[in-house]
Amino acid sequence: MISISTKQVELFDQAIGIRFVDKLLALLREEFPVCFRGLPDFVCKTMVVNGIQASLRCGFTLQSYIGGFVALQCNSSPDFFLHPTIAKTLAISNREKLKYHYLMNNVPKPIWNEIKLSTNPMAWFNNNNNNQAIARLSYHVCSVFPKITNIQSEAQLFLLFTIAKEKAARYGVNWEEGIAIFAVALALYGSRLDEINGPTWSKKVFFPSRLSPEKISNLLRLRILLDTDKII
């Protein structure tokens, strides 16, 4: 099991500074625009910070190596280091320079192709960290509906996803995909979505009787699909 030494924590405290995160994010956005397209800044920064933390757990402390590690996450999959071949490569040496050299030069191309084919974008986020729930939700929504990011400020987005989580919970929708559907519906149809004076069609979803959480979620998703031709 990989552990972080005191020295690594101290270096991380320096590396995690806002300037480093901002600089690294700017470079990554330029090199991997698709990876961050349509995403709010707070989501992108969460991704980069989590990438830095993953690189530290894998034994990298120098900023140049950390940057290269996060770039590999962008180019393959954020959890690429969990692949058995990558894990073995990272375990070859405790020397940071050699570890980085092996990672960059000794992993066969077919392995990288395999990782890319099974990429899991949500692995950018820590599912066990409640503080990242809004960032995960924002990624889920904004990667499909980038216009939502374009027309609302970061503060408005944060409020949107907070309200979506509360409204969804009111109807028993407590899974992330369902909350994402509520967020898109609120952005498209307004905050009165589930009120008696809301959109005409929504009355069949929320009134007069309570449908199951799954039924409500599916009906909202269908309406969004009909209106936008996009699946959330």
From TrEMBL:
Protein name (record): Uncharacterized protein
Organism: Candidatus Methylumidiphilus alinenensis
